[in-house]
Amino acid sequence: MKNITVVGVGYVGLVSAACFADLGNCVTALDINEERIANLRKGILPIFEPGLGEIVERTMRAKRLFFTTSYEEAVKDAEFVFIAVGTPEGVDGEADLQYVRMAAESIAKAMTQPLVIVNKSTVPVGTGDWVADIVRESQPSPVSFSVVSCPEFLREGSAITDFFNPDRTVLGSTDMDAAERVAQLHLPLRAPIMVTDLRTAEMIKYASNAFLATRISFINEISNICEALGADVKEVARGMGYDKRIGHHFLEAGVGYGGSCFPKDVKALAHMAQVHGRHPQLLQAVMDINAFQRHHVLTKVETLLDGLEGRTVALLGLAFKQNTDDMRDAPAITIAEQLHAQGAVVRGYDPVAMDVAKRIMPYLDMCDDPYVLAREADALIVMTPWNEFKHLDMKAVKEAMRTPIMIDARNLYEPAEMRDLGFTYRGIGRGYDGSSYAG
Predict the structure, then answer these.
(1) Residue 203 lies in a domain
(2) How far is the C-alpha of 142 from the C-alpha of 115, rounded, in Å?
(3) Among all residues, which ones are annotated catalytic?
(4) What's the CATH number where 93 sits?
(5) How far from 187 is each of 151, 164, 181, 355, CA to CA, in Å?
(6) pLDDT digits 0-9 by tens, 353-370
(7) Residue 437 within a domain
(8) What pLDDT, in 10s, does the model give residues 58-86?
(9) What is the distance between the alpha carbons of residues 343 and 21, in angstroms, rounded to a whole number?
(10) How far apart are the C-alpha atoms of 126 and 141, rounded to whole Å?
(11) Which of 82, 201, 205, 248 could make a disulfide contact with 149, Cβ separation 3.0–4.6 Å?
């Protein structure tokens, strides 16, 4: 059993702390937000993530997971300190490292014995060296330490599965002994462990997210060409995916990517490239296509309604993806804002994200269920592909609407089935229906 401290109890930090505790380690999770820590001690989580609540409760009961706001308390017996604080987007697209700096300074002031400091936050290339300098400069008296980069690859909605079944663990350090010690923490996960230098490890995270975002923007570009030519992008993606060099993952056309990672990480990587005199044309195209997809969905509904003033538009799903309440850069925010700005009455329903969404979009009329959402609506836009939406009584949804117009921005439904029910249906790149292009 190792003594581990995790700084930050946001998405990555809380999942990492709970899962390391579930592996049998003694973990102290620290955050300077007193209300959040007080709630966690009562078992109230700040995020929705399937399975996380059960692990937090189990490991707290077993006295392997503790919560504190005190660096002195958290660091005094620690062998490893993971920095898992937020790195929000800065003014020019760069990652804002103010919370990383605060964490590094506070760790330095509290440490009294040698530590391995592990960067878990997604940070720009070179941050590991920068953190080492901050710790060295902030120590009241010299105490030995090492810095290891260990980027996270957790998907919201399946983070527990991802933690315990990773594709790989990436570690970067100039101290191979420290990297080996962090590797030992991950051995129970029985996944490949790659050890490299600090900057390469940091770059692997950005390159991975940028590539996945590129796949999403690529298939969305193809979907728009499919709409022009009468092909079905879902079938195109399926045919592409059988090629082992391509695969099926992240080839789902829709309203584009959102969330806390892809938008800011692609921007941050492009910013790093530009600062160093490179020209990230592909990354810029990825971002442009993603922004266009939201505009594309708005154009579809505006065209079908022949204007938005006074119309009631219902958003089915609000979170940026299913199985999370995360609204960070959710496409629904952009869509709702533009609908509202053009005079539409905007309603919303989401299984778990409505409380978060209401704080961001106070003008949104929240509904108790999808059938209330549909009542007297002029159009319905499918924004989040929750599994439960696949099993709705779509005949009842259609009958509740004033005009049964559906914009399926996630290609959740089959066009022919929806048209047979009486919907005026538009998906994303869904081909030709015999009389008109169906995109």
Answers:
(1) no
(2) 12
(3) 261
(4) 3.40.50.720
(5) 16, 11, 10, 39
(6) 999 999 999 999 999 999
(7) no
(8) 999 999 999 999 999 999 999 999 999 99
(9) 51
(10) 25
(11) 201
